Amino acid sequence: MAEGVRWTPIGTWHHHPMRRGLVILLVLAGWLLTGCGAGAAGVVEQPAQQDRAALPTSQVDPHSGLAWVLEAELPPNAQDTLRLIDTGGPFPYDKDGSTFGNREGLLPSEPTGYYAEYTVDKPGEDDRGPWRLVTGAQDEVYWTEDHYSSFWRVWR
Q1: Would you tell me how many other CB atoms lie within 10 Å of the CB of residue 142?
Q2: Distance from CA of residue 91 to its chain's centroid?
Q3: How would CATH label the architecture of 60-155?
Q4: Under 8 Å between Cβ of 123 and 115
Q5: Rounded to an integer, what distance in angstroms lies between the CA atom of residue 152 and that of residue 132?
Q6: Do residues 152 and 67 make contact, with C-beta atoms less than 8 angstroms apart?
Q7: In the chain, at which end, N or C, are there fewer CB atoms within 10 A of the end residue's CB?
Q8: What is the DSSP string of 20-37?
Q9: Residue 12: what are its φ and ψ, rounded to 5°?
């Protein structure tokens, strides 16, 4: 064996600091060359500037004092109901679109007729269930999953 060359048994090659660094370097280079987990075109997709700016700046809506929930975080049935609201229906329940009176006082105080309620089907329920979306006359949307005992403000 040549002077200064250290023999390393096959099972311990990864313990040598130079080899470990080389392996890390090769893995990192491979990751970079394959696009860092990017899409097929090798371009890392990032949200548009307006999408990033459009996220809420706090966890609580300053107008209502309620916590935000992102529309995309709502159950799929709630997202479907929002699409129906956006297009004006047709709605599956006669009460959909009727006035929500805010008798619980959990939403900002507004004149009668300001809020409308919509049923969101909850899987496993055999009636209208507890899930609702409530909309305001200025396009605000509120979500409740416990039949008006609590609300979140929906960020759209």
Answers
A1: 25
A2: 25
A3: Roll (3.10)
A4: no
A5: 11
A6: yes
A7: N
A8: HHHHHHHHHHHHHHTTTT
A9: -120, 15
Read off the pLDDT of residues 125-153 as tens digits, 9 standing for 90 and up: 989 999 999 999 999 999 999 999 999 99
Catalytic residues: 117, 147
Q: Please tell me what DSSP assigns to residue 127.
A: S
Find tokens 């209208």 and name the residue: 128
- pLDDT value, residue 57: 86
Tens of pLDDT along 107-128? 999 999 999 999 999 999 989 9
pTM above 0.90, yes or no: no
What percentage of the chain has pLDDT greater than the value 70? 66
* Distance (Å) of CA 139 to CA 2, 10, 26, 114, 134: 80, 68, 53, 10, 10
Greatest alpha-carbon span in the chain:
93
- Amino acid found at 141: V
Q: Which region among 26-30, 31-35, 37-41, 78-82 has the lowest average model confidence (pLDDT)?
A: 37-41
- Evaluate the CA torsion angle 88, 92, 97, 103 in order and state its sign: negative
Domain boundaries defined on the chain = 1-42, 60-155
Whole-number mean pLDDT of the chain?
A: 79
Token pair 């959909």: residue: 96
